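Following the same procedure, backbone shapes were mapped to integers, yielding the entry below.
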Amino acid sequence: MVSRAVTQLYDDVMRPSGLRVTQFSILGTIARMGEANLRQLEDTLAIDQTTLTRSLNLLERGGVIERVPRPDGRIKAMRLTSKGRRALEVARPLWAQAQAKVLRELGTTAWTDTQRRLTHLFQVAAKKRRLGRARRRVQPLAMSRIEARKLSRAVGGS
């Protein structure tokens, strides 16, 4: 509930830019990296793949990002277009206004404490996410009964 209220505050202030704060964060991250693939954005922004993919598709349709072709034929990395760079330039001062409003409301001491706590929470969540990915990678593939039967027949079983 708190995150929605804060997001709404930023979205309201940033409305003239045409970007929501989540889109601003994605564009800012891509701008800092030059180009970024889905995994890099997931890890950096701590956004689940489904939500991130939906946001990237909207940004691509809006012409603010584009896919970067890869030599091996994969098209997974994203970069800002000139329209995206302009949108980011318009949005930055609006984001700063929203940030200043939050700081005025909370005070710098409370803001610093909140940042520290949220950073810790993010680190815990990111570590748990990495461990979950690692476990999924090392688990043996489950075989259905039909596949097991076929394999058994193929190697001479009944």
